[in-house]
User: Fold FAD-dependent oxidoreductase from Thermococcus waiotapuensis.
Amino acid sequence: MRPLDLTEKDPSKKITIYFEGRPYEAYEGEKLPVAMLASGVYWLTTSTEGRHRGAFTFGPVPVTVNGVKNVDGRKLKLKNGLRIERQRYDEFQEQVEIDEGKPVIRYVVDVAVIGAGPAGLGVVEEIGGKLTVALIEEKGWLGGDMWLKGVDQEGFGNPRRAIERLSSFPDGVRVFLGTTALGVFDKGEYFLVPAVKEDQLIEFMAKRVVLATGAVDSIMLFENNDYPGVFRRSDALEVINVWGVAPGRKVAVVGAFPEEITQELDRWGIEYVVVPNPKRVEGNDRVERLIDGNGNVYEVDAVIVADGRIPDINPVTQVGGRLHFRHGYYIPILDAEHRIRKGIYVAGSAVSIKPHYANFLEGKLVGAYILREFGLEAEPCLYEEKLKEYEPVARPIPKLPLDGFNGEDVQICGCGVTLGKVDEVVKSGITDLQIIKRLTHLAMGFCQGRFCLFNGALLVSQRSGTPMGELDIPVARPPLKNVKMKVVAGRE
Ligand code: ATP
Assistant:
């Protein structure tokens, strides 16, 4: 086994790849960052500013493969003999490529459900067999965030088995895995949902749309928070539970929700320490130590940020939904039937952060509202009642030790935007996030603000004294994910 393997891998899949000229053991179909992690190599790419980066924090992972530059290393599935080199970000553009030579595939359905986590699966369980459904999921698996979990989940028990139970669909339900919805547009009686699977453009025409698009990991601000060996919670969960590889030998868990990660580490017997107030990560090409706000030094080889999740607001604002600030994060303003506006529903952790089972129930609730709209029998009040048992998770609003940080070492955004750069603009008196975006490029890059806009708002709120709820949050523009604009432009 490789140094950080937690499980035996299939020996018939064993291959050799070359990274920076050195041979490494890997397994066919494994992702590059996972194979390198298993062998203890964290540094995979270099930002335009020259910062060494791994694949599990944020920002893209461009690498050169067999001499071809600008391959997205995060998604690279390995084959025997591949020769991979580190590369700088430089001209790399992470974007969905669409082959315009291919004819567009079109589907007409009653309901398009975007996102196949517990909420999307709840919607489909409720309406499947009664209405025609397209279930659109950008990942290669069903179950969303719950698929990454190894420990039993309230209401569901074993997460994998629960998802498998929910994955047998009746006729009339079509599932599109590996398919990214790019937005939702009005088209008379219908909504148009353009989506892309590999390089194929697919257009869904749907009478109703459900945004079951979930939440994103919160990015925590501390010095060198982009170092190789710093993990976002979902990446840590994925390497452990999907790929059977440990994030490190001794791990520091930071953030407001450590137990979500520590129970998984306990399960595998991975040594860890919980550090509530990280200040700085140090090391040579990878995490070697973490220093907290009190000056304590922890010798660790990985840091997992377990700071919970916040709803992904981009799909909501792209279709004209408005937001308010509740429970410590921005959430969509919904009518009594969970709609942003007529025909567009939201369910799950896109609405608020709560247990997986509550998100599933909320999917069922939305499904029941939709059935009623189509004149079919449904009892939404059943689910409304059950949902009352679940309070949304309140996130404490972090208090950033702004003047205690070296702002140039804190990455607020994976595209090389530092906290220091944004703070300088805010301190000069500019507190309009739209203008801050233009001046600093915050929320203008790969993640389109999904990860970094919240921290930008937090910074403005803290410096200006304006409550988070009173800030004007910029709306997301289509397409939801980077794609060649000319493809989508003609369709609005
Ligand atoms: P929970 O948060 O409890 O797991 P949930 O179903 O509300 O429940 P997720 O599990 O995060 O939330 O599932 C949301 C799913 O939506 C994810 O699997 C994500 O890949 C998918 N998704 C998000 N945006 C898009 C998009 N634009 N196109 C296709 N799928 C998307």
